[in-house]
TrEMBL record:
The lineage of its organism: Bacteria, Bacillati, Actinomycetota, Actinomycetes, Micrococcales. Residues 204-250 form the DUF58 domain. The keyword Lipid metabolism does not apply. The chain crosses the membrane at residues 9-26, 32-51. This is DUF58 domain-containing protein. It comes from the Bacteria. InterPro entries: DUF58. Pfam families: DUF58. Keywords: Membrane, Transmembrane, Transmembrane helix.
């Protein structure tokens, strides 16, 4: 708690102290007593305000904060509701006269004061306001700052109520088409290299346009009166690894992560098991990175959560090490026959050599960043695309900042 006199309190205390010192200097006891009254008044007000601190004691106020939605995508608006409630009838008086303010990270408030609406009812105060999630990350919100003063407004006390909340901001994503006839691969084979599943070990879902008719469960479809297909991840949907090579330039980072997230979600929504490989901490995961499946609750959220903490490499050496580490994970036994979709930057000879062997066991697709503002990077991007194509990849160049759908369609070959 921070306790301080208000300007009125400082003025009263200063006048009282002056009169008291003048009375002592003149030997007037009455004058000194008169001067002591304002000083004692301010001191008593400070003691009273401290005693009525709403954040301490058995009668402390309870705070509940609701964030809707949380997590939220970058560029979207988040609604916040803070409810301050008295814990018993005797603590209701603590709500009277309180002034409220909320603390928020700059990425949520843009450095501007938050404009809130305050609603009061017996024993409860509700503060509601909205914030704009400007950038991907995990940003603090709160705690609530309350200010209280005495009846004469001579002393003010500032304290915090409740816990600090965390707002998770996912990257901006765009819906991308996922043509099953191009990416599914071999429908009769098991995606992870095991035997084809029987009906007993598969779950069923409604038929979607583009689903292979060989996955239709005819007995259940006849019983229900509509087409049902096996939805297990091993029913011909090849696993997808999204290879992430982040740019060291901050201006291109968020665009690249949005492209990564959009591609991964498109593959997940199409029924493919999906995982992200950025090469960070690969030595801690010798058994490989697990896939996320659409039949698992929270798969989309888990995939987006994996993009929140992605960071740029500190230099070209670290970037190369990440690509090589991610490539080593692709050499795991389960990687055979999968689809590898790379969002890459211009690669040096070492990274290109590491990716050369990927196409021997997997279907490789790559979008390589090319910045026209930097001719050397543009040349390196063209060299990377040619090297990947010679190794069996399907690759194209993309320009940071262009529409993500255009990049994706160019890779699929439906737009040039």
């Amino acid at each position: 708690m921070r306790l301080r006199p208000t300007p009125r309190g400082w003025t009263l205390a200063a006048i009282g102290a002056f009169i008291m010192l003048a009375g002592i200097a003149m030997g007037s006891v009455e004058l000194a007593r008169i001067g002591a009254v304002p000083v004692i008044l301010v001191a008593a007000a400070a003691a009273f305000v401290a005693w009525r601190d709403p954040g301490t004691g058995r009668r402390a106020l309870a705070v509940r904060r609701v964030l809707t939605p949380n997590p939220v995508h970058a560029g979207e608006r988040l609604q916040v509701e803070v409810e301050i409630r008295s814990t018993d009838p005797s603590s209701r008086a603590r709500l009277a006269g309180l002034r409220f303010a909320e603390q928020a990270a700059t990425e949520l408030s843009a450095g501007r004061p938050l404009r809130a609406r305050v609603q009061r009812a017996p024993g409860v105060v509700t503060v509601t306001y909205g914030v704009d999630a400007a950038r991907r990350g995990r940003w603090p919100l709160g705690p609530l700052v309350v200010t209280r003063s005495d009846v004469f407004a001579t002393v003010a006390a500032t304290t915090t109520l409740g816990e600090q909340a965390e707002v998770t901001v996912w990257p901006t994503v765009v819906a991308l088409p996922a043509p099953n006839d191009v990416l599914v691969g071999e429908p009769d084979r098991v995606a992870l290299g095991a035997r084809s599943p029987s009906t007993d070990d598969s779950s069923l879902r409604d038929y979607r346009e583009g689903d292979d008719l060989r996955r239709v469960h005819w007995r259940s479809s006849a019983r229900r009166g509509e087409l049902l297909v096996r939805s297990d991840e091993r029913a011909g949907m090849r696993p997808v690894s999204v290879l992430v090579d982040l740019p060291p330039r901050p201006t291109h980072l968020e665009w690249s992560i949005s492209l990564v997230a959009s591609v991964a979600l498109a593959m997940l929504d199409a029924g493919h098991p999906v995982r992200l490989l950025d090469g960070v901490g690969a030595h801690l995961r010798p058994v490989g990175v697990p896939y996320l499946h659409t039949r698992h609750d929270g798969a989309r959220a888990a995939l987006l959560d994996a993009t929140v903490d992605l960071e740029s490499p500190r230099g070209s050496t670290e970037a190369l090490a990440r690509v090589v580490a991610a490539t080593h994970l692709l050499e795991h036994a389960e990687a055979g026959g999968e689809i590898v979709i790379g969002v890459l930057g211009p690669l040096g000879p070492g990274a290109r050599a590491a990716l050369t062997h990927v196409a021997e066991a997997a279907q490789g697709w790559a979008m390589v960043r090319s910045d026209p503002a930097h001719p050397s990077e543009e040349r390196d991007a063209e060299h990377t695309v040619r090297a990947l194509r010679r190794a069996g990849w399907r690759a194209c160049t993309v320009t940071p900042g262009e529409p993500l759908v255009d990049c994706w369609l160019r890779l699929l070959g439906t737009a040039r």
